[in-house]
């Protein structure tokens, strides 16, 4: 699907370079601390739990859990879409890291899943060589 | 923790004209406010030895957001300064006031002017309100991920919090409506307020949706205007016309400074700032006569009421319902000037101005009788600050 959400690309830093490179391969990644296992996002190169400096990127796999949601109804710049659902999704298996993305309800795009619902996700190209996330109802298959 | 011999005071308040699309530059509005504040304190520009603002010269998040360059203000008034600060990273809208209070307490300065200017109404023009970051090439820092993900308005971010509060506590849209309606009623007593005609629940519920559950009257309105205060050393009070003591400040940042990564979205950074505020004083929430609470979006009021301890966690919806408690004459009048929802978005400084007027007995028809303690909480999401101000006694 195409995604035409408004927004500006994130500044790419030495810490986030690999995150975006993984995104171009279709992977959503977070850092994992080698010593204590805490997951860190955005990437920092340091663990906020144990101050470990050895962290490696690990792909995030679904399902996520809906933490909150909203349906946007306002065009935030001329020509921008007005109506789209946004979800804030938590990944309990990954130390609870959260991501924001659009929710595709498979219908008119205004449906939002209830808090606690399981969701899957996909990456769609955005801002040239970056991506945005699209969440959908969780399909274990 | 009370380590101070005497408390820093706020000795003067000045505001420029306040309105939508004023035919006056941000710079002139600022000079208007600064000179008025100095005069209100009974001082001369040559008495001023500190100058602070936020953010000043920095990349604007929105057109008209920043106000003028601090250096140009210093130059225009020929100020001889011991200290100055144009701050773009700090505890929310009082990031200039709090260090100014520290400077006068340390003896680095005697009288600091702090100001905040916005011309967002003019910059926005006649069109609709824009998203954040639109003029930027890329987003950096703690907003980068939101701005890249399509959540380009703080309305979206606030909606995440409000939905979570509703989910967990059963808070309702109508309860939010009581905040907008109460503030509108208060604005009737403020000639500078943008919206002064009464708002009904029907009007409120029928207003255009912005980001569910928020609709138009849950959002503040961009303004042109400048506010300035003079912050003075404790030992200057014998020479002052009037003053308010800065009893305590809330400047804490104890959790992740990201809207989306805040640990519990039924709370905000308000909770850190409020806890920090109360840790510095013997006063209690029950001692507060009037509260001035930031309302870029109406839900912020709920989060601040809980954070400041005016009601228990989750009970802010019932607390504001019906408007009785939070109206003039109620047990805790809030946002007596109309707040940013009806008074206009002066980016937190309308609350500070009103707090001082309440303490100095100059709030006119909206005066709270015998107001001696005012709590001011500004900001929301992951960045907030607070002041506890008390009436100065000669």
Question: Mind explaining what this structure looks like?
Answer:
The complex is a heterodimer of chains A (141) and B (394). Chain A is mainly β. Chain A has one helix spanning 17-24; strands at 29-33, 39-40, 55-59, 64-72, 84-91, 97-103, 118-126, 130-137. Chain A has one helix and eight strands, in the order H-E-E-E-E-E-E-E-E. The longest helix of chain A has 8 residues, at 17-24. The two termini of chain A are 20 Å apart. Chain B is an alpha/beta fold and 394 residues long. Chain B has a single domain (9-125, 220-391), classed as Peroxisomal Thiolase, Chain A, domain 1 (3-Layer(aba) Sandwich), CATH 3.40.47. Helix content of chain B is 30%, strand content 17%. Classes of the chains: A mainly beta (141), B alpha/beta (394). Chains A and B meet through strand 4, strand 5, strand 6 and strand 8 of A and helix 5, helix 6 and strand 5 of B.
Give the biggest beta sheet of chain B. 9 strands, mixed
CATH homologous superfamily assignment of chain B: Thiolase/Chalcone synthase
User: Average pLDDT value of chain B?
Assistant: 95
CATH topology of chain B: Peroxisomal Thiolase, Chain A, domain 1
CATH class of chain B reads: Alpha Beta
Q: What is the β-strand count of chain A?
A: 8
Give, in spatial order, the strands making up the sheet with the most strands of chain B.
3-2-4-7-1-8-11-10-9
Mean pLDDT metric of chain A: 94
Helical coverage of chain A, percent range = under 10%
């Amino acid at each position: 699907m195409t995604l035409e959400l408004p927004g500006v690309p994130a500044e790419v830093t030495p810490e986030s370079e690999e995150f975006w490179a993984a995104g171009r391969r279709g992977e959503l990644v977070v850092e994992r601390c080698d010593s204590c296992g805490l997951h860190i996002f955005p990437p920092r190169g340091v663990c906020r739990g144990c101050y470990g400096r050895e962290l490696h990127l690990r792909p995030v796999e679904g399902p996520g859990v809906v933490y909150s949601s909203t349906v946007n109804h306002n065009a935030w710049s001329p020509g921008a879409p007005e109506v789209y659902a946004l979800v804030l999704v938590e990944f309990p298996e990954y130390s609870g890291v959260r991501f924001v993305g659009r929710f595709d309800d498979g219908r008119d795009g205004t449906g939002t899943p209830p808090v606690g619902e399981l969701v899957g996700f996909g990456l769609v190209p955005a801002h040239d060589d970056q991506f945005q996330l699209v969440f959908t109802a969780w399909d274990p298959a | 923790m009370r380590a101070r011999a005497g408390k820093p005071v706020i000795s003067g308040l000045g505001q420029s004209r306040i309105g939508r699309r004023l035919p006056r530059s941000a710079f002139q509005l600022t000079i208007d406010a600064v000179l008025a504040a100095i005069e209100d304190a009974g001082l001369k520009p040559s008495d001023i030895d500190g100058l602070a603002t936020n953010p000043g010269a920095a990349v604007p998040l929105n057109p008209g957001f920043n106000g003028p360059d601090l250096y140009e203000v210093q130059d225009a008034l020929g100020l001889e300064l011991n200290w100055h600060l144009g701050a773009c990273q700090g505890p929310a809208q009082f990031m200039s006031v709090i260090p100014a209070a520290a400077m006068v307490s340390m003896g680095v300065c005697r009288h600091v002017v702090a100001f905040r200017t916005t011309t967002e109404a003019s910059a926005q023009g006649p069109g609709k309100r824009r998203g954040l970051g639109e003029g930027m090439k890329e987003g950096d820092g703690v907003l980068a991920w939101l701005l890249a993900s399509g959540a380009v308005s703080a309305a979206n971010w606030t909606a995440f919090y409000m939905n979570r509060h509703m989910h967990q506590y059963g808070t309702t849209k109508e309860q939010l409506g009581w905040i907008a309606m109460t503030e509108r009623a208060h604005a009737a007593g403020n000639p500078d307020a943008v919206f002064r005609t009464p708002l009904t629940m029907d009007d409120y519920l029928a207003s255009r949706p912005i980001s569910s559950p928020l609709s138009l009257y849950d959002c503040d309105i961009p303004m042109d205007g400048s506010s300035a205060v003079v912050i003075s050393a404790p030992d200057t009070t014998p020479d002052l016309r009037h003053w308010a003591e800065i009893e305590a400040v809330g400047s804490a940042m104890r959790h992740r400074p990201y809207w989306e990564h805040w640990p519990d979205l039924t709370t905000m950074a308000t909770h850190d700032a409020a806890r920090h505020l109360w840790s510095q004083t013997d006063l209690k929430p029950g001692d507060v006569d009037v509260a001035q609470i930031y309302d870029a979006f109406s839900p912020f009021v709920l989060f601040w009421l809980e954070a400041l301890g005016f009601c228990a966690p989750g009970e802010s919806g019932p607390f504001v319902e019906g408007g009785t408690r939070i109206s003039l004459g109620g047990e805790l009048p809030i946002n007596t000037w109309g707040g940013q929802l009806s008074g206009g978005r002066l980016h937190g400084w309308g609350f500070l101005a009103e707090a001082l007027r309440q303490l100095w007995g100059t709030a006119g028809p909206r005066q709270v009788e015998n107001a001696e303690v005012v709590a001011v909480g500004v900001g929301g999401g992951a960045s907030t600050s607070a002041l506890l101000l008390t009436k100065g006694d000669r």
